[in-house]
Amino acid sequence: MAKRFQTQLFVSRLSAYTTDRSLWQLFSPFGQIKEARLIRDHETQRPKGFGFVTFECEHDAQKAIKSLDGRIVDGRLIFVEVAKNSEEVKTDMNSKKADESW
């Protein structure tokens, strides 16, 4: 079964000065965005340095990855990739545990 490209992107290594609005503005030239959000610390409400951007269509998400992955933004080298769903994260964690047991 072919893996379907997703429209939600994971953006890491963001500056502490990045806001939800600046994240939206950074990605908006590539297409229609459904959502752009930073993940924040529950206690301090400070951004943790990563977030998610969801596009309306896969083609726009692919354009954003090609253009922004490995780019310097606000003095930081950022990485942009397709976000993993919770099942993929669990599988990755289980395979790492199996590798460590050897």
TrEMBL record:
It comes from Thlaspi arvense (Field penny-cress). PROSITE patterns: RRM. GO terms for molecular function: RNA binding. The keyword Nucleotidyltransferase does not apply. Keywords: RNA-binding. InterPro entries: Nucleotide-bd_a/b_plait_sf, RBD_domain_sf, RBM, RRM_dom. Gene3D superfamilies: 3.30.70.330. This is RRM domain-containing protein. The keyword RNA-binding applies. Pfam families: RRM_1. SMART domains: RRM. Residues 7-85 form the RRM domain.
